[in-house]
């Protein structure tokens, strides 16, 4: 079994000496290490989770495309109804998604709703769905949140959570 030397860089929070944390074979990676960048190995996204790195305490096998295919993510389209425009709903949604490690997009619609797509690891995905149904921005009032096309996906189609122009 080959093992890969990993190099993490998280300049915003410093994290480790010189902002770098180097891990060799059989390294132990703690779950939920807070980062501020997408984690890549050899240009391939290993964990597309800006704030949490989901690993085990086992030695890491050769990583890259093969490893990322083994991970299963959840995806869904959503639309939120109620007082969700003009109350910073999109900005708070972007902030929450980023903190959970969920990727996708959000935009206002001409129906006075917001719509978008979310993708991420199952636990983070479920937390984001609950947040969209119940929390929103401080000034918002969510009457309903609908989720459609919910499915498992082998890899994430987005690198971050973005606010898109109005539909």
UniProtKB/TrEMBL annotation:
Enzyme class: hydrolase
SUPFAM superfamilies the UniProt entry points to: Acylphosphatase/BLUF domain-like
Family to which the UniProt record says this protein belongs: Belongs to the acylphosphatase family.
Domain of life: Eukaryota
Entry EC number(s): 3.6.1.7
MF terms in GO: acylphosphatase activity
Catalytic activity: an acyl phosphate + H2O = a carboxylate + phosphate + H(+)
Ranges annotated as spanning the membrane: 20-41
Zinc is among the record's keywords: no
Keywords: Hydrolase, Membrane, Transmembrane, Transmembrane helix
Protein name: acylphosphatase
Domain Acylphosphatase-like: 75-165
Active site: 90, 108
InterPro entries documented for this protein: Acylphosphatase, Acylphosphatase-like_dom, Acylphosphatase-like_dom_sf
Record Pfam families: Acylphosphatase
Lineage of the species this protein comes from: Eukaryota, Metazoa, Ecdysozoa, Arthropoda, Chelicerata
